[in-house]
């Protein structure tokens, strides 16, 4: 039902590292089983990225941070009363405010905690759960306000500078929109075609195909984690599916708690591999979409600098202009490590 297609490429060269002996070097092109998009795996020798100097990052970024408690009320905007009564949403330490630089009609920031810096290997699940809870509340307040066509509620998170996040203080972005982005449009079209062809939800079939296999990471409640067959991250990435749930509004507090608790395990496992920055996106179906078309899917993409001294980014022409994902590690290798740590007590 799901095809895992891969093609091996072979390059022949005289290798200066081995006295110019003739060598054959393999790389691999894989196809995403849903969209058919290609992704490359090459076995580039790369040392683990150096550990971050969190104290230096804090010293540089804390002065003037608009999300720190002493400035949050004065420097962040408030929603109009008719949209969000009280102007902001709060739960635990999380506060949701308008994005001062909105990129959609309903565009918010969920500041997750009072602390300016959190380490990726010790992220409290509670702050993720509270952030998703205020995101869900904001999406609930705005979902009915999108004129005509399908509406989507999307939560994303850029953590630490390598991710492109402009603020170090942990925060998520939340939008309610009729234009959810090209990736989601492609995935929904492919999932709809899969359902017509097979009668099954793609994510359901994917979990069945991957469960207990070499790319399986683990499961908690409705939330199943695996390493995608066609990788998106240069040093690995992960995908989570929330079974039988299509949007953030469908999640109850137990689902959110399971997602948060399992996410912090995966974050800690990536941190143990020397990664300390990431992008996260929760990809929903449209509100009121055909039942059983798509299940809420999270993509977690660790980010890093290939060379921190020279500020060499991990994104290049390959991802940004050729729209081709590029990995230096096989997903099976990444999953084996994450699986061991996911299940650890
Ligand atoms: Zn701060």
Enter the CATH topology name: HIT family, subunit A
Name of the CATH homologous superfamily: HIT-like
Radius of gyration: 21 Å
Number of strands: 16
Overall body shape: globular
Strand content: 25-35%
Ligand names: zinc ion
Helix and strand sequence:
EEEHHEEEHEEHHEEEHEEEEHEH
Number of domains: 1
Largest sheet: 10 strands, antiparallel
- Unreliable stretches (pLDDT < 50, length at least 5) are none
Arithmetic mean of pLDDT = 94
How far apart lie the N and C ends? 35 Å
| Structure class | alpha+beta
How many helical elements? 8
Biggest β-sheet: strands ordered side by side in the sheet: 4-5-6-8-7-12-13-11-10-9
Q: What is the CATH architecture term?
A: 2-Layer Sandwich
* CATH hierarchy class name: Alpha Beta
Percent helix, as a range, is: 25-40%
Name the features.
345 residues, alpha+beta, HIT family, subunit A, binds zinc ion
